[in-house]
Amino acid sequence: GEQWARLAAVGGALRTFQPMRSYTASVSAEPFLNGTSSNYVEEMYYAWLENPRSVHKSWDIFFRNANAGAPPGAAYHSPPLAGAALGLANAQAMVGVQPNVEKLVEDHLIRGHHVAQLDPLGIMAAIDPGPPPSDIITSNDKLEFYGLDESDLDKVFRLPTTTFIGGSESTLPLREIIQRLEMAYCQSIGVEFMFINDLEQCQWIRQKFERPGIMQFTLEEKRTLLARMVRSTRFEEFLQRKWSSEKRFGLEGCESLIPALKTIIDKSSMNGVESIIMGMPHRGRLNVLANVIRKELDQIFCQFDSKLEAGSGDVKYHLGMWHRRINRVTDRNITLSLMANPSHLEAVDPVVQGKTKAEQFYCGDTEGNRVMSILLHGDAAFAGQGVVYETFHLSDLPSYTTHGTIHVVVNNQIGFTTDPRVARSSSYPTDVAKVVNAPIFHVNADDPEAVMYVCNVAAEWRATFHKDVVVDLVCYRRNGHNEMDEPMFTQPLMYKQIKKQKGVLQKYAEKLIAEGAVTRQEYEEEIAKYDKICEEAHARSKDEKILHIKHWLDSPWPGFFNMDGQPKSMTSPSTGLTEEELGHIGHIASSVPVEDFTIHGGLSRILKGRAAMVGQRVCDWALGEYMAFGSLLKEGTHIRLSGQDVERGTFSHRHHVLHDQNVDKRICIPMNHIAPNQAPYTVCNSSLSEYGVLGFELGFAMASPNALVLWEAQFGDFHNTAQCIIDQFICPGQAKWVRQNGIVLLLPHGMEGMGPEHSSARPERFLQMCNEDPDAYPKFSAEEFAVRQLYDCNWIIPFRKPLIVFTPKSLLRHPDAKSSFDDMLPGTHFQRLIPDSGPVCEKPDGVKRIVFCTGKVYYELTRERKNRGMDNTVAIARIEQLSPFPFDQVKVETDRYRNADLVWCQEEHKNQGYYDYIKPRLRTTVDRTRPVWYAGRGPAAAPATGNKAAHLVELQRFLDTAFNLDAFTGQS
Fold first, then answer.
1. Which SS3 state, helix, strand or coil, does residue 567 take?
2. Which residue range or ranges hold the Transketolase-like pyrimidine-binding domain (predicted)?
3. Is the CB of residue 587 less than 8 Å from the CB of residue 580?
4. What is the extent of the structural domain holding 23?
5. Which band of pLDDT confidence, cut at 50, 70 and 90, is reported for residue 771?
6. Are residues 448 and 489 both part of a single domain?
């Protein structure tokens, strides 16, 4: 150690040892001890340790003195001049420039992509927002910059041991070194990877791109590639001929995307992958459906018929598909899912990842060897949409990783009408991927063989390291944003060049014909064969009168529905548990089922409090949640609870994950100790993301109907930043894409006088999007009323509809907010409405007012009613299920109190909360024979005041209104 410290002082930080045995004995220590080339100091030291005679005499003297304790400055003594006759001067000169050659090699690795021939248009718009870079590795004075000159080009230099450009050779002339580096890093492929902080991964990539002769393809591979290019190109041309005035967001300009995806799928199938989930924007979607997923062409073509009775509520270039087929290259089964998604281009990214994670979970694929994801992106969206960053940050988190995603960027060099100079601040649209050390392979999309090679490497990378990788297909967009758009308005120079651009299929076909790989006749026959397939499918498509939804399902649930698409059961069974089950789950919830596990003292008090409640046969919210989760797990239903701080709970009420106070990272999840053969419980704190994580959980819930998947917001208003997922996926998902989903959103809500932030989960937004008609009383039989409502609505359960729960905050510890075990025994059901059970029930005709409410305000109303002594004159009913609205049960209450005023009371402001939703439905219930009055805060822009005193004044004011029996009569 002391010797090593002395050597480090001589040359600075020591670098990787690189053998130099061939001339160590000739090289003097003097030029290296003047502050240069510390790696050679280390090298000489290793050589000296093996054999003191193998190094120059000056090194021998230096190392002997240094080991004896001499400081570095005094350890060196110049030996007698003895090397002139051996050509020492020449050897020293060669060694002197060796580090410069190594720097030249390194710079090609770091900077080669900047000067690679990536842009098919030759205008470099895809590379930088600014002008093309002037790079030293391609400048005329490159040799001078590296301390070299023309005379060095034919000198032979030792290659660094970290490079593979030499193949089996360890030395090469400088001229050959430069040529091989440019072939590896400056042609149709540009590689960004030197930011990766893992030496093994970097060396793996270098080997894939530096080895001589790597990009060689067999005759069969070239012919297959040509056939795939024919299908990709001719599909778009067929659509253009048949429907020239229709928008389809075609792939023209990036036709190599289709063979790129098929190459990734082929290679992944070879590596054992059985299922691939894909997400993509609308550009090229129809082509991907046709030629990658292999959807029936007639089902695609029939959608261009405006007279078709479409069962789906979205345009054709938003729809997805699920298909299981044989991969013809590997002869193995492969399942391909292309997820439906809206025009929010990157919103599908986390949804795909969640569905991938779920499929891996359900088939026990803990390493991602059988199930994987591919995400396609546009260049502008990849750089500009924040959800891309959120999704990348999930990639290595234990509860969210999918063990590597292959990202393919269709880099059109333009976003709608915006060019890169004003669309991003980074050099590339893909720079966001560097945040997770994902390698980025830029490739000229007009070089199909380079595209094919890069995609093979990407698939191998994913299979080897199970980490994300990016393929950047630098291409162009031959038409405007859509086929009706005029791009010359805004990009005249680019589109002048595009009009001159020969198509990639034509260029590649000419190349193969020139090579003799195919004949012109074979090429034309391949085109004619695919054109015939398209024409025959077009003829069949004219017979389609109705779009069959089964052809567009991206997440089918086999066995869950009948043949007609109806649920197998239209009943809502009891959710009650036996006393024994409640007691057992309560015991688990109030104990630590692991030996020698030390918990926090405050948590001990919480568990004792739970045990006391179990003894009293009551549940607060946290214990009630335990009962619900525990019973489902015992029955074999997997539960996944995800979100920010969900393990403990934002309000320190849940504590589903216990932490040993003495052992780091030692945890206990009591819920996984309910029963021997129970389903697993996954509870996981998420990254500080709402958009990405809610999208992820939505995708997870999509994979199976037999699971409970919940996302909890830290506070209810946090869903604001996930609004796209709610508006575009959760609310209309079934109507647009026939997509069933049972995602549950837990949104803490309640105005506790703590300011405008975190008070409101904005219930008005969810209620506004409910598809129920407020002016029509449902015409269902009494027996099926509740269940039929649930089936017809757009979000709620039990038919695997999304469920929105406005969860409590202050009520988590409110002494009155508890339920008896009696409400949870066999035969009990969820109560859509909780009627008043107090003195008002004895003489309902004498009740002057019935106040309908929901949530926390109920406890404030009951307290105020008691204080005013109005328990016999004012009834209070709680509507627990807001949507679908329980018309039938509300009618029971309004009929019971037929002489009473109808009042809706809420703590939220009048333009917020529930009032605008509730009022028309209450009026419909009573057939508009009685008015519906409002008691609550007045309209406001913010959800709540920031002043505690003002909050209390507002509260008392609307309570006065609710209990002033003359308030709505015009009397004093």
1. strand
2. 619-814
3. no
4. 1-86
5. confident
6. yes
